[in-house]
Amino acid sequence: MTTPPLASDLNLCLCHSCGMACDMRDEPTVCQRCEAPLHRRKVNSLTRTWAYLLASLVFYIPANLLPVMNTTMLGNGADSTIMSGVLEFWEGGAWDIALIIFIASIAVPGIKFVALTLLLVTVQRGSQWARVQRSKLYRFVELIGYWSMLDVLVVALVAALVKFQSLGDIEPRPGILFFGLVVVFTMLAAMSFDPRLIWEDQAERTLDQVPEH
């Protein structure tokens, strides 16, 4: 059984704007149909992914240490971090909400950190190990990325409900801002990573360093 040809073997490049397979024999810099910039690979994919990932790791520390909201009920106020909020829901019998917040706010970012680091290290080493599984891992990271915003939505929703019911007051704290930055930067890291690099050997990866036109 013969191996199907690669796009590079046929001198083709897929336009990321309109999806047209562009002829690259004359090395055009823009798509012939929509005039969007053409790149065989995402420009500086590994460098940008590392930068976004490290930035998200830096913001992850204050996101977990600083309070995400302040709850005032009947005159008594208290700050809550993500983990303390999970424990409060759990002790209050709302184990399902506690589990959802724990998965979305603690587990999902941790999984994304580990998965993206694994992908970056193996690609930089030119590893041929488990390429199919690593491609599926990248798609999984993309899939779960948007659920990380659940904690931000929970704070906004609970604050609106409490104000509506006039039982007290809930105000966001700096921790929720840092957590939002963690979500944004991990999403940018996943978007910057080029999964096609998984299938390239180290000697073939010169295209990732091509400057942007």
Number of helical stretches of at least 4 residues? 6
The shape, in one word, is elongated
| Beta-strand content estimate | 5-15%
Order of helices and strands: EEHEEHHHHEH
- Could you list the spans in which at least 5 consecutive residues all have pLDDT below 50? 207-213
Using only C-alpha atoms, the radius of gyration works out to 22 Å
For the report, how would you describe the main beta sheet? 3 strands, antiparallel
Spatial strand arrangement across the major sheet: 4-3-5
Helical percentage:
40-55%
Comma- or semicolon-separated keywords:
213 residues, mainly alpha, three-stranded antiparallel beta sheet, 5 strands, 10% strand, disordered C terminus
Describe the structure in your own words.
The chain is mainly α and 213 residues long. Helix content is 52%, strand content 10%. It has helices at residues 45-65, 82-91, 95-124, 131-145, 150-165, 174-192, and strands at residues 12-14, 21-23, 69-73, 76-80, 168-172. The strands form 2 sheets. Strands 4-3-5 form a 3-stranded antiparallel β-sheet. Strand 1 and strand 2 (21-23) form a beta hairpin. Helix 1 (45-65) runs antiparallel to helix 3, helix 3 (95-124) packs across helix 6 and helix 4 (131-145) packs antiparallel against helix 6. The two termini are 39 Å apart.
SSE layout and pairings?
Layout: E1 12-14, E2 21-23, H1 45-65, E3 69-73, E4 76-80, H2 82-91, H3 95-124, H4 131-145, H5 150-165, E5 168-172, H6 174-192
Antiparallel strand pairs: 1-2, 3-4, 3-5
